[in-house]
């Protein structure tokens, strides 16, 4: 039989040991709580990067600091290349179709970045303007090539200051033609003294290839018959179905 006195003494000893352990842990943690953490050094402000690095940080791949007044800037798109003349101070003169020019005289509206809808409708209505935008708005997030036409056209360029002055004199509303007066015509006139457009020439060559291909005659005849079947026998369906294949056959 167990001695009750020993049990009481052992219980008291266990309680004392438990209390001593708790106090020991609290004492060991107390100094850490009372002492504040060492002050962290304040980060020193970094100097702002140059303008060229800022543009590259935004995802653009060009160095504005390397552009010279009168340089030809080229922005490759999916199927076409857009051109402009650098005027200095982060400004580019370029020819842009814009339907808004015939709808309003409010310069606050027309000076906004031209959207795709405004551009397409401007091409259809053949109205444009030679306008000034920032390099960022001109590039529209794409890469920029500088004076690449000098190598591809192999023509002697005018002086950069003369190029910029020509561009500034032409600022304002102008007519637009995909084949005869586009942004490339504007740039080559300012840069070389004669308006040319290799892109328009290439487009015309592709059209010639399509016309000369006798398969175009067969394709146009099939489309003409399909339009007659779907829309019925009428002058607006019958005449194109006859004359378009005939003209393609004669031209080929």
From TrEMBL:
Stretch forming the signal peptide: 1-29
Location of this chain's protein in the cell: Cytoplasm, Perinuclear region; Endoplasmic reticulum membrane; Late endosome; Rough endoplasmic reticulum
Protein name from the UniProt record: Lecithin retinol acyltransferase
PROSITE patterns registered for this protein in UniProt: LRAT
Membrane-spanning ranges: 218-251
Lineage of the organism: Eukaryota, Metazoa, Chordata, Craniata, Vertebrata
Keyword Lipid metabolism: yes
Keywords: Acyltransferase, Cytoplasm, Endoplasmic reticulum, Endosome, Lipid metabolism, Membrane, Sensory transduction, Signal, Transferase, Transmembrane, Transmembrane helix, Vision
Disordered: annotated span: 29-57
Function: Transfers the acyl group from the sn-1 position of phosphatidylcholine to all-trans retinol, producing all-trans retinyl esters. Retinyl esters are storage forms of vitamin A. LRAT plays a critical role in vision. It provides the all-trans retinyl ester substrates for the isomerohydrolase which processes the esters into 11-cis-retinol in the retinal pigment epithelium; due to a membrane-associated alcohol dehydrogenase, 11 cis-retinol is oxidized and converted into 11-cis-retinaldehyde which is the chromophore for rhodopsin and the cone photopigments.
Domain LRAT: 72-199
GO process terms (BP): retinol metabolic process; visual perception; vitamin A metabolic process
GO (cellular component) term, any one: perinuclear region of cytoplasm
Record's keyword annotation contains Transmembrane helix: yes
EC number: 2.3.1.135
Biased segments, Pro residues type: 34-50
Pathway involvement of the protein, from the record: Cofactor metabolism; retinol metabolism
Similarity remark: Belongs to the H-rev107 family.
GO terms of molecular function: phosphatidylcholine-retinol O-acyltransferase activity
Family matches, as Pfam families: LRAT (PF04970)
